[in-house]
Amino acid sequence: MERLPVAVIGAGLIGRMHIDRALKHADVKLVGIADPTPEGKEVAVAAGIPWFSDYAEMIEVSKPRGAVVATPNVTHARIAVDCLERGVPVIVEKPIAETLEEAQRICAASARTGLPVLVGHHRRYNPITRRAKEFITSGRIGVPVTATVLSTWLKPDDYFSVTWRRERGGGPILINLIHDIDLLRFLFGEIESVQAMVSSGIRGFAVEDTSAVICRFRNGALGAISVSDTAAAPWNWDLAAGEADRFPQQDVNSHYLSGTLGSLTLPRLEVWEYRGGRGWHDPLTSERTALHRGCPYIEQWRHFRALIEGREAAVCSAQDGRRTLEATLAVPAAAASGNAVLMEH
Length: 345
Ligand SMILES: NC(=O)c1ccc[n+]([C@@H]2O[C@H](COP(=O)([O-])OP(=O)(O)OC[C@H]3O[C@@H](n4cnc5c(N)ncnc54)[C@H](O)[C@@H]3O)[C@@H](O)[C@H]2O)c1
Known about the structure:
Layout: E1 4-9, H1 13-23, E2 28-34, H2 38-47, E3 51-52, H3 55-62, E4 66-69, H4 76-85, E5 90-92, H5 100-113, E6 117-119, H6 127-137, E7 144-152, H7 172-188, E8 191-199, E9 210-217, E10 222-228, H8 237-241, E11 255-259, E12 262-266, E13 270-274, E14 284-288, H9 296-308, H10 318-337, E15 341-342
Bound molecules: nicotinamide-adenine-dinucleotide.
């Protein structure tokens, strides 16, 4: 099977990850890297891949059959729509866009052109997430009851030397919590409403450093998420799941999902259930699935190709990414108003 020609637009932190994974991939062949900066050019030269300052020229010359848009959020809608209109399906990094209107423009362009879009919620490709989904859809934990999520860690002081990270929209809600919201939507289904409080009490920047979120799922389950980037704590997916080498892995759980028949922890994949009498006086049994680690970004490239070739349905479509964005944007809105925000979808 010939490898599918693909391109990466934006060779920053996550763009370099996509480049690295594409270079090692049996399914895709990297034919172009677009990034106007000297650093971007250096990345392309080091990888031995043709470099372009302008992604439109790259599409013209290198003719990729798919591209990753790994540029700043504010540019996602413009670049993604432009790629689609030039006949190129895209993986748009998360968040799909900065606003719901922009997200809708991407959804509309995908529908108009008939070309697929993936949103880069990479956790959906992790074997841990996939096994968790199997446990839940098979009925092993029964009817979902609660999701308790910890998303607490400490970003170093120098992280905040970049101005936009101290301003509204540059904080843990849109950068990190959005992944947890997407993971919960993937595992527990649609979110119906969101309530929240935010605080910037520790760092005192305009952006939040901490937030407490409550959500109601359409199936009646309730979720509670604690998020903070100023807490000296290991309990968050990035440290616990070991997805990226830049985070030292910790052997802890960050997600606790309970149902009427059993409960499940992530990422350690412990299932707790009754095998005799069922009640709080009876013994619970726990069983742990030990998985081999798998790189979600590698799996995402494989799936992107299968999606482009019509062999698989999108794991995270533009509409899916838009719904995750809607629930995430509801957090600051709910905190500001003090009221529950209902999802319109
Ligand atoms: N899925 C994940 O795990 C993950 C992790 C980090 C970031 N992200 C997302 O990826 C995106 C990029 O984040 P980052 O941390 O890599 O940012 P970054 O600032 O490190 O990189 C962005 C790159 O895009 C380039 N760029 C800007 N405008 C461009 C244009 N018009 N054409 C081509 N290149 C252009 C910049 O020069 C820069 O190199 C954001 O949307 C972010 O939310 C996702």
